[in-house]
Specification:
The protein starts with a helix and ends with a helix. It is an alpha+beta fold and 313 residues long. Strands 1-2-3-4 form a 4-stranded antiparallel beta sheet. 62% of the residues lie in helices and 6% in strands. 36% of the residues are buried. The longest helix has 39 residues.
Length: 313
């Protein structure tokens, strides 16, 4: 058989290209892994996860991040409660009540985008780490709260599950115990580990980068906003709000296709995400895709009736 020199070159070029592409993919994977590893290694240098979160958010005027005030709260709580190896549920609740009072005594109260659920939850988390209270931050749609969970296996789908014994949610805004039902989003979202799960340290740090991204977007710095959202997504790929937010930054840059790609991911993670559908409607309209926009608008109205009107009846 005669060799076809042109085919040989083409095959060689294809193999070289495939190898180069494969090498690039390996490089990207290694870069992502090294980024996550470096972030988690850096976090260990700080007294608590919250201290590291404050360092990430230090240029963010939309979130509380005063480490000196945090230390003052920790010290005041430590003065009032003895540190032990184990705490009963009742003792844990008393420590949380003290934390709530200390926050209040310093003149802090809930204010959206200044001192809200994230900020309060991060303070409680620091107290939890200092006292070894088995506290976790938990995400709900556009909200965060604290959960006490001894074995870290809380089942939000079945309140009667034996793994939930001794568990309770602490609503940081009100400073009181709350039931899972107050935050219920839907079985599918919970099964996907999107909402009502105990957040890991890595996922909390991802939230910090997302918060910075939101602040930069508000300031009109869309490129830096997108960079921070990308860091957030590398650390936690299962937060629909990060995809909605980065999508909005792309939208503001008039990169509508990129915006839609991210809204699609958000909707895949959370099929009832109002903001993702609402934003995607506008992106489709900007691209002249009116039929798709109308389809989303119909879905949006169906969700609105299902969630809000049913609550009013």
């Amino acid at each position: 058989m005669k060799s076809n020199w042109k085919n040989y070159l083409a095959t060689g070029a294809f193999l070289a290209g495939s190898f180069f592409g494969h090498s690039q993919n390996i490089s990207k994977t290694e870069n992502k892994t090294s980024f996550v590893d470096s972030i988690m290694t850096e976090a260990k240098k700080y007294p608590t996860t919250t201290h590291f979160i404050y360092e990430i958010m230090k240029e963010n005027d939309s979130n509380f991040h005063n480490a000196d005030t945090l230390e003052k709260i920790i010290q005041n709580v430590e003065k009032q409660h003895e540190k032990k190896e184990k705490y009963s549920k009742e003792e844990t609740i008393e420590i949380l009540k003290t934390t709530s009072k200390e926050i209040e005594n310093l003149g802090f109260e809930y204010e959206l985008n200044k001192f809200d659920c994230d900020d309060m939850s991060f303070i409680y988390l620091a107290i939890g780490e200092k006292f070894n209270l088995h506290l976790y931050c938990v995400s709900a749609p556009e909200h965060m709260f604290i959960r006490h969970d001894l074995d870290g296996k809380h089942n939000s789908l079945d309140s009667n599950d034996s793994v939930n014994k001794g568990d309770f949610n602490w609503e940081t805004i009100r400073g009181e115990i709350a039931k899972d039902d107050e935050y219920y989003r839907g079985r599918d979202c919970i099964l996907k580990r999107v909402y009502l799960k105990n957040l890991t340290k890595q996922e909390l740090i991802a939230q910090a980068f997302s918060n910075v991204g939101q602040y930069l977007c508000k300031e009109g710095d869309y490129n830096r906003s997108i960079k921070n959202y990308k860091k957030s997504i590398e650390l936690n790929k299962n937060n629909p709000e990060s995809y909605v937010n980065i999508g909005f930054s792309f939208f503001k840059k008039e990169e509508y296709d990129s915006a839609i790609v991210n809204y699609n991911v958000a909707i895949k993670l959370d099929t009832d995400n109002f903001q993702a559908y609402s934003n995607r409607i506008y992106a489709y309209k900007c691209l002249g895709k009116i039929e798709k926009a109308n389809k989303d608008y119909k879905k949006f109205n169906e969700m609105f009736k299902k969630v809000y009107i049913s609550k009013m009846e």
